[in-house]
From TrEMBL:
Cross-referenced Gene3D superfamilies: N-(1-d-carboxylethyl)-l-norvaline Dehydrogenase, domain 2, NAD(P)-binding Rossmann-like Domain
Function in brief: Catalyzes the NADPH-dependent reduction of ketopantoate into pantoic acid.
Recorded GO MF terms: 2-dehydropantoate 2-reductase activity
UniProt name for this protein: 2-dehydropantoate 2-reductase
Enzymatic class: oxidoreductase
Pathway the protein acts in: Cofactor biosynthesis; (R)-pantothenate biosynthesis; (R)-pantoate from 3-methyl-2-oxobutanoate: step 2/2
Source organism (scientific name): Spongiivirga citrea
E.C. no: 1.1.1.169
GO biological process: pantothenate biosynthetic process
UniProt KW NADP keyword: yes
SUPFAM superfamilies: 6-phosphogluconate dehydrogenase C-terminal domain-like, NAD(P)-binding Rossmann-fold domains
Record-stated family: Belongs to the ketopantoate reductase family.
Length: 311
């Protein structure tokens, strides 16, 4: 299969790198100094599960490369997905498939604005990684997993073929019984820690051990659960319990990627996390006071970062 990885940050660099290391045909879409470094020196991945390097990684900034792709993995930020879907519309093969891996609950829906239903799968991943320097990815925590499936949960031939690619690359790959439940389970976890972490400038260990902050995280998760259930998503209180079990297992000094983006003055996924919960709550008539508080407190910083981006 001809594979394109759109975005070579911590997610795309690691999972795409593993596929390339296994000998599969992978082209990376990157930009700027990161792209230059990959072209010149290859892609280096530092990982708690073993470092590796792709000396001759194929990389470009030309979106048109996807016209030859069978599978496109989107490893960009949630707020970029809809625009990328529009870019892909005119160049994708009719039977090509796009799999979004970023955080957020509605990435597949954003792609379906421009793409056909048969061209989109649901997806997510679990990994803590980042760009350490141009051309270098650092996977520094969490056992990596990639999870995807048909939006109707069919165990189709193409899903099983893509799963085999990752199994061949020695990557933990799951095709769940319910892809939407899997997506919302990850969304609940990451939204519960990200916004409050950014607002308090606190590591996860601080938040989970502070009685008041832990209660705010609990309320954040409860609001997300009510939104999900109203939308017909099959998650429940056990999902929240598992999320907090995961929170309690995280390394004390862990921070979320959205939190780091906001703290460093970069555009973040705020609109796609707490902002999404607030907007869906307004549509459904469901109060979301804690998510609203977090969202509105962080919004001025988000607007400032995006104004800087436009300049």
């Amino acid at each position: 299969m001809n594979i394109v990885v759109f975005g070579v940050g911590g997610v795309g660099g690691f999972f795409g790198g593993k596929l390339a290391k296994a000998g599969h045909e992978v082209t990376f879409i990157a930009r700027g100094k990161h792209l230059e470094a990959i072209k010149e020196n290859g892609l280096t991945v530092k990982s708690i599960e073993g470092d590796f390097k792709i000396p001759k990684a194929k990389a470009t900034d030309e979106v048109a490369i996807v016209k030859h792709a069978d599978v496109i993995f989107l490893a960009v930020k949630s707020w970029q997905v809809e625009d990328i879907g529009k870019q892909l519309k005119s160049v994708l093969k009719p039977d090509a498939v796009v799999i979004p891996l970023q955080n957020g609950a509605d990435n597949a829906e954003k792609l379906l604005i421009s793409l056909r239903k048969n061209q989109v799968l649901g997806g997510l991943c679990r990994i803590i990684s980042k760009i350490e320097s141009p051309g270098v990815i650092n996977h520094f925590a969490f056992h990596p997993q990639i999870i995807f499936g048909e939006l109707n949960n069919e165990k189709s031939d193409r899903v099983l073929k893509i799963q085999w690619l990752f199994m061949d690359a020695k990557v933990d790959c799951i095709v769940p019984e319910d892809i939407q439940a899997a997506i919302w389970t990850k969304f609940l976890f990451i939204t519960t820690i990200s916004g409050l972490g950014a607002l308090t400038r606190s590591e996860i260990g601080v938040m989970r051990e502070d009685e008041k902050l832990r209660d705010m995280m609990q309320q954040t998760a409860n609001e997300i659960l009510e939104i999900a259930n109203t939308k017909g998503i099959n998650i429940n209180q056990k999902t929240i319990e598992k999320a907090f079990a995961a929170i309690d297992k995280q390394a004390y000094h862990t921070t979320a990627s959205m939190q780091r983006d906001i703290m460093e003055g970069r555009p973040s996924e705020l609109e796609n996390f707490n902002g999404y919960v607030v907007k869906e709550g307004l549509k459904m008539g469901i109060p979301t006071p804690v998510n609203s508080f977090i969202y509105n407190c962080l919004l001025p910083m988000e607007k400032k970062a995006r104004k800087h981006l436009r300049n």
